[in-house]
Write the structure tokens for this entry.
Amino acid sequence: MTEPKDFTAGVGSDIKKSQKRVLFVTRRTSAQVRVFDEERVQTYPEALFRAALAIELLTIALVLISLFFNAPLEGLADPTNTPNPAKAPWYFLGLQEMLHYFPPVVAGVLIPMVLVIALVVIPYFNVNIEADGLFLKNRGRRLNIFYAGAIGLSLFLWFFHVYVALIPTLLIVAIMLVAAFSSPASPQPLRRYLASKPVSWWVMTWFLLELIVLTVVGTFFRGPGWSWVLPWRS
Amino acid sequence: MAGKIDDYLAKLERTRVWRSVFRGGTGSSTLRRALAIQQNVFLHLFSTKVRRRMLRFNATWYLGTLTLGTFLILVTTGILLMLYYRPAVPQAYADVKDLQFVVSSGLFLRNLHRWAAHTMVLLAFAHLFRVFYRGAYRPPREFNWVIGIVLLMITLLLSYTGYLLPWDQLAYWAITVGSNISATVPVIGEKVRFLMLGGHQVNANALLRFYVLHCVILPLAAVLFIAVHFWHIRKDGGLYVRQSEPVREPAKEDESVELEKV
């Protein structure tokens, strides 16, 4: 007489749709399934053909652009003739704008290093994974940190005359204030939305806004000697 | 006519040579379609099946796919441009001028390379922000997020090294501005700039170094990390999906709950 086994074996009844699975369910646990199998499709052709179509449409768009707009080409490089202003590629113009206000070691080395490290560590902090609304837990303490940080950063930018970065900062601070005094059960959808946003969302949105504003200013609004110019008045 | 071509293709697919190359076989059965992925060294990076929810435009906006698309365009046009370009002073500038005015479709080739490069930087940033706002960096995908940041750095370096190659005023001074910044790193800054430029200022040595980085080292690094990036999607359980997002066809209750006794 063999001892009764401590498990039951079964086969999922959806085997025709997905791979065969053998389940071992020990006696003391339930076999309740919480996540239902969802519809899966073959990568080939469903996903690959869509990807190919997306890339084809992109190629057509780029070919059309290339037919109508020529890449810039200036005169031969001349080390004795410095253009004014000498501009970096557009994606570095945000940093070049910072270079106008801060010493090179801060704007060119410290800020980019902090940015890259900040981006890399995002998924390694539980606060970013849980992603609860910033002002919902430890409200008093977090409000104090927020006030101190917002006032400190604004004063710092104001002290160094970085008004280009100060204006987006004040805009984000204003929206965060709305979020701080909104309830997740508010009748207005926008205030519910803002109240639910975690700290990483605010920092990233601030970063995105600064990135866009500084790049646009560096590209279009800076002339000789990095002075302020209006692009439509050349 | 079309029927004849189909017949011919069907015959071709049954030949011994064809079947020795494409071992997954032919036809449109689920097994064959799975083997098309699984038996291919490159496609094997992907899983054979994906959740239908992931194919929705709203899930990804296809930004990663499109970034890959720009990279493919850049490799193709880049190789063709290499045929007409010498990384030396002053030949480099003359070669680019030739591309503009002498080489057939040279202007178009250079335009396409340039606009695709700008688009790739833009798309890589867009992909980063899209992944962030979707929350797709969460475990178990955290390391793929880090690989994505590495790929963004490689993209920026590729674009930056390519910027010098036309050897015009725009290129020369943009790189001068950038290399002066790297010289301000405490202690090692000057050494780093010397290593990067092969001298104390942007000159013919710098052009050659940037050319080697742009055409060999960085593209190889990019291909390597792109492969790891794609492979990680499969290893991390497919693209991120929020539990709150509706499944298009919800599974019927009796399909997955009931167990048949063996």
